Amino acid sequence: MPKIKGFKGVIYNPKIIDDFKNVVAPPYDVISQEQRDAFYQMNPINVIRLILPKEEKGDTASNNKYTRAKKQLDAWLKDRTLVEDKKDAIYIYTMTYSDKGKKKTRVGFFSLMEATDFSKKIVLPHEKTHAGPKIDRMKLIKQVKSNLSPVFCLYEEKENKITDILNGVMKSQKPMIDVTIDNVTHRFWPLHCKKRIAIIQKIMKDKKVVIADGHHRYTVACNYKELMSKKPGYKGEADHAMTFFTNLDEPANVCVWPTHRLIKTKKDVSLETLKNKLGDIFDVKKYKSLSDLIKVMQKDKKINFGIHVKNGFLHISLKKEADLDSLITENRSKQWKRLDVAVLHSLVINKLLCLKLTEANVKYVKQAKEVLEDIRSGKYTIAFLMNPTKPKQVLEVAEQGDVMPQKSTYFYPKLLTGLVINRMGQ
Fold first, then answer.
1. If you compute the radius of gyration of the chain from its CA atoms, what whole number of angstroms results?
2. Judgement on whether residues 155 and 104 belong to the same structural domain of the protein
3. Which of helix, strand or coil describes residue 32?
């Protein structure tokens, strides 16, 4: 199963950083254009200059945003803005956050994990990847020769032996980084003890690992490994990908938010039309407000979701007698067919409503209030409100070799980029 090991992480020099808040950033793929500009203005040594370098007029094949990221990384290493750890380590990382009014702490660790093709079923994906982001990240990694951002993986361990080791370290020493950003407190410790690292390695050998976030990063790491392995004198420098691991069996570690869907159609869709098309398979009930709809969605234990159009709200709940195995005709596992989001895409959107999803007519949002604004403004005609995918379903579907529809999961909180970097040779 997964082969992990410690590494000499590259970190921001704590002797010159007054506030780590000013040098870290969210993952590159959740940063908007406006946010990128703000990070650029925040601090001249913010990690944004590495993970999302800007294009400039006159860029060429030899002088472009990717080569500028390499020059920036090299400069920061040379002037000791970034420093390399003297010993191999794994790095403990906790995120304390609020979920529905309850304070929770995710506990996990960074290490290197051998990059193996998905076909070997050592590392399991749960979502599809797309060509554009992979091309972009490959161009970047070829220049910086580093894992700038981690892959985020889940494993199962009911005994919590790894967490016990991590907790022991956290109790015995102060964190190297302790910073609160957007109401999430991030703490970071190095663990250099060879004995403890060896125990964690041994425990992880028997685990199934599923990617929560970072499918594109992991795929690029595998492709980069294959590319480098063909070069003369290669010594395995690119064999591993920097990965953050957390235990799926500890509820606080895995918080999944729903992702709602907004769709543009040529004509407005009425509640009556929806009831007629969906009523044979779903129990359909009108609601007066978004808050009332969300409440009933959260209480319903069956497959269910909400719909909002200009003239109101509907709660859609699968009838007990509905046979998903015959209704959903795709060659998919039972676990996949019992995902709310799969039922929505395959049965409701595609089959019953005959709607087509394209990049031009679909918008994905995290906050339900955005749904109200976009429907009222007329930007979109129909919205589907979702419950979050259950964390265990992520593992169950991945184990069947299935991948979920796009935007099936939004893991919260997002890992910070800039806590630690893995260099893969010069």
1. 23
2. yes
3. coil
Looking at the structure of the chain, the number of domains it has is 2
User: Cβ(148)–Cβ(47) under 8 Å?
Assistant: yes
Q: Cα dist. 70→41, 85, 113, 324, 426 in Å?
A: 20, 20, 23, 51, 11
Rounded to whole angstroms, how far apart are CA atoms 77 and 271?
60
DSSP alpha helix (H) spans, 194-288: 194-204, 215-229, 271-278
Q: Are residues 267 and 229 in the same domain?
A: no
Give percent of the chain above pLDDT 90.
87
* CATH of residue 310: 3.30.1760
Q: Is position 377 within any domain?
A: yes
| Beta pairing partners, 306 | 315, 385
Q: Indicate whether 278 and 249 sit together in one domain.
A: no
Asked if residue 294 and residue 200 are part of one domain, the reply reads no
Give the largest Cα separation in the chain, rounded.
Answer: 68
- Partners of residue 79 on adjacent β-strands: none
Instruction: Name every residue whose Cβ is closer than 8 Å to that of residue 199 and which is 6 or more positions away in sequence.
Output: 161, 165
The answer to whether residues 74 and 216 belong to one domain is yes
What domain range is 332 assigned to? 259-387
Q: How far is CA 13 from the centre of its chain?
A: 27
Instruction: Express each pLDDT in 113-167 by its tens digit.
Output: 999 999 888 999 988 777 888 999 999 999 999 999 999 999 999 999 999 999 9
Q: Specify the pLDDT at position 426.
A: 57
Distance CA 4, CA 30 (A): 27
Residues contacting 132, CB < 8 A, separation 6+:
none
The string of pLDDT tens digits covering residues 157-180 is: 999 999 999 999 999 999 999 999
Residues 238 and 337 occupy one common structural domain: no
Residues β-bridged to residue 102: 99
Note whether 188 and 91 are within 8 A (CB).
yes
User: Which residues are CB-neighbours of 242 under 8 A, at least 6 positions away?
Assistant: 7, 110, 111, 112, 147, 149, 150, 151, 420, 421, 422
Residue 188 shares a structural domain with residue 245: yes
